[in-house]
Amino acid sequence: MKDFWDEQDSWTDETKHKLKYLLKKRCELLNEMFEGSQEEVERFRKVNDLLCNLTKKMHSKALNLYRNLLKSGYDPDFDDDITLEATLKYDLDADCDFLYDENKPDEYGSRYWTIMAILNILYEESYTSECAFCNTSYVLRHNLDMTPEELGLDDFLDDGKSWFEAPLDRPEFKDICICHAIHDLCCHKSYSIPDLLKMNNFRIDINIAHQHSVNIDGERNSYIIRQ
What we know:
By secondary structure, this protein is an alpha+beta fold. The protein is built from seven helices and three strands. It has helices at residues 2-7, 13-33, 38-72, 112-125, 148-151, 180-188, 193-196; strands spanning 81-90, 130-137, 202-211. The protein is globular.
């Protein structure tokens, strides 16, 4: 696979544009071919439950970290801004991140590992690899009594209503409350439903950035912690 990873450096903008078009058509074809067997539906339910729980876990951890930050306060001698960002994404880096069925190596006629690796590269490059995220900035008026919504860290996209939209609006999924992370992967990105069922590694990243900016004379940036 080393040659494959090396080739991406030579992809032109025209090549990437063609790839995106072909990947979208492939996604549409695989969704049309998807049979929705009992085994596949159960796998879909399992992935959906996992992503739903991971999204909640991401929001909960981000909220706890931000509240701890509110307890400690900011450093006026250093902090021009403090930002918190949390992301959830499919992470394809090794063979174990992909479910391979020896009995169905080319199910629905697709070379899944290679295609999903290309998709992963394109989304990482364009900084759109996440399927769920939340973020906030430190604000002086924020306090520990505020709700997640008031702090900007509520999970408003998963409100108990299913994202039962094309191509996910299938009879087999009608009793599943489809989470927004699934919606993002299969509706906003070019991962087909068969692709989704082969994903085996999801990663949450939460980063807190303290920004300090000065000019050559040591004068602080005019952008400071907001009220």
